[in-house]
Amino acid sequence: xxxxxxxxxxxxxxxxxxxxxxxxxxxxxxxxxxxxxxxxxxxxxxxxxxxxxxxxxxxxxxxxxxxxxxxxxxxxxxxxxxxxxxxxxxxxxxxxxxxxxxxxxxxxxxxxxxxxxxxxxxxxxxxxxxxxxxxxxxxxxxxxxxxxxxxxxxxxxxxxxxxxxxxxxxxxxxxxxxxxxxxxxxxxxxxxxxxxxxxxxxxxxxxxxxxxxxxxxxxxxxxxxxxxxxxxxxxxxxxxxxxxxxxxxxxxxxxxxxxxxxxxxxxxxxxxxxxxxxxxxxxxxxxxxxxxxxxxxxxx
Length: 300
Known about the structure:
- With 300 residues, this protein is α/β, with parallel strands linked by helices.
- The protein has two domains: 197 residues, no CATH class; 90 residues.
- It is built from twelve helices and ten strands.
- The strands form four sheets. Strands 2-9-8 form a three-stranded antiparallel β-sheet.
- A hairpin with a 2-residue loop joins strand 8 and strand 9.
- Helix 4 crosses helix 10.
- It is flat.
- The N terminus is likely disordered.
């Protein structure tokens, strides 16, 4: 279970984000919250301007989740004939296929194909996200019984996907990354036209990411626009030593986080872990009544 404090503030002021054309967030909830903040920032800024300026149409950057951005890139790539036409599986459909592969070649003493399928699904995605070459580590992986079984299931899963013209999310991302530069430029234009008004700034920025995987970094670099210019003045607090830095080709962005925002407390029982998470969240709210707190329980 991951516990995080979503009360993250940009080191750059919100008005700096107004210069961007497209802002990517980790999830829909943060995208909706940031959109509200940008509207309030724009309204407050226009309130201090002249009456004529305040009556202009409210133009804001588009704020969408990172997953939506990837989905748009993949859809436009298929519609344009840049990728082989396959049906993209959702996570539940992918899990069912993993179960089929495992039950077709079950290990001795199999207790739960669903549990093993979930582990295989997670492992395959992490291998792709962290750009691990399985061939380079085949000997080490095969030295373990579970590792050898996973290699066989992984090979069978890839063959099954190809036979049925299906693809997983990580496969689609790898295929997008392999496109030539001119095709990637075409997809950038398609995504820009789908989300932004004509003649809008085509700058892409990230907001709210704790970290990026190597594959995500490469995708941002491959499908990025020019970085947004930083404002002329930056306060001393913006240069805090505990700020998190992101320096991808798409942006150079900084988020401040208090050192106590994330704590780790090992637990043997799930219920105890939930209790500690609730106590942690209550403590945050007691110290900072206006804080926004998120507790993520993947198993629910």
